[in-house]
Amino acid sequence: MKPVKIADKMVGPGYPCFVVAEIGINHNGDLEITKKLIDAAAEAGCDAVKFQKRTVEVVYSTDELVRPRENPFGPTNGDLKRGLEFGKSEYEIIDEYCREKGIQWFASCWDEDSVDFIGQFNPPCYKIASACLTDDNLLRQHRKYGCPIILSVGMSTLEQIDHAVGVLGRKELIILHTTSTYPAAIKDLNLRVIKALVDRYDVPVGYSGHEVGLPPSLAAVALGACMLERHITLDRAMWGSDQAASVEPQGMKRLVRDIRAIELAMGDGIKKVNPAEIPIMEKLRRVR
C-alpha cells in the first residue's frame, strides 16, 4: 500500500494519524466563530480543518429551498442554506487565517462548480462526502485537479464503493469508514469495517466519527485508521444540525493527545525484553 501525501504529511500505515477537525457548517455563517474553531483545532494539534462548499441552487431543488423552516437567517430552508454558505471573500480570509495558524484546510464539495471554486485556493486535497459517492460526474470533476482524494463511504454498499473507486482510481485515494447519522449510535459504528476496507481496496483507510464521545474514535486509530475526522464545535448546545455530533475544544485536545499516546503504545509488534524490564527481571526472577 502506498501512503498518500497531503501537504507535508504522509498518510498511511506507519505514519502518524492525520487528524482533521471538521468545521463543516458549525461556523453558523459567522467568520468570528470560524476563526475560533480554527484556533481550537490548531491548539489541539490537528493537522487540518475542513469545510463544506455547495452551490445552493444546484444542490437543492426549488421546492426544497422554499420549504418553510424557521432559522436565524429567515423563514425558509433556502434562507438557511444561503446563510451558511461562504463566498470568495470569506474563503480568502479563511485561507489567510489558516496560513497564519499553520494549519491546512480543505473542503467537501457537493457540486462541480464548488470543486472549481475551491480549486482556486490550491487545496492540499479534496473530500467527497458520503452523500456524493454515487455522483460519477462529481467524482470525475474532482480528479481533474490532480489532488489527493478523501472518500467517505457512509450509507453505501460495497458495490457502490467498488464503483466509486473504479471511477476515481486508487492513486492518491484515502477511504474513510463512517456511519452517516448525526449523532451515530455506538452500536451502529461497526469499526471492524476499517480492516475490511483496507483488505478490499489496498489504500489508506481512516475513520470519520459522528458519535458522541471519544472512545470509538480512539479505538478506530488502534484498529489502524490512518486518518481521523471529527466535527468540531465551540459548544455542543449551539444552534445547528451538526453541533450535537461534534467535539468541543477541550475534547479535541484530549482526542489528539490520546491518539498520540496510542500510537506510541502500539510499538513495533516485535516481542523482546524491554531495557526498562531488566532491573525488575534481575530482582524478581529466581531462574534465568
Detailed description of the structure:
With 288 residues, the protein is of the alpha/beta class. It has one domain: Alpha-Beta Barrel (TIM Barrel), CATH 3.20.20. Helix content is 39%, strand content 19%. It contains 12 helices and 12 strands. The protein has helices at residues 31-44, 56-59, 62-66, 77-83, 88-101, 112-119, 136-143, 158-168, 193-201, 215-222, 249-266, 278-284; strands spanning 4-6, 9-11, 18-24, 48-53, 68-71, 74-76, 104-109, 126-128, 149-152, 173-178, 205-209, 227-231. It has an 8-stranded parallel sheet with strand order 7-4-3-12-11-10-9-8. The chain has a two-stranded antiparallel sheet with strand order 1-2. Strands 5-6 form a two-stranded antiparallel ribbon. α1 runs parallel beside α11 and α10 (215-222) runs parallel beside α11.
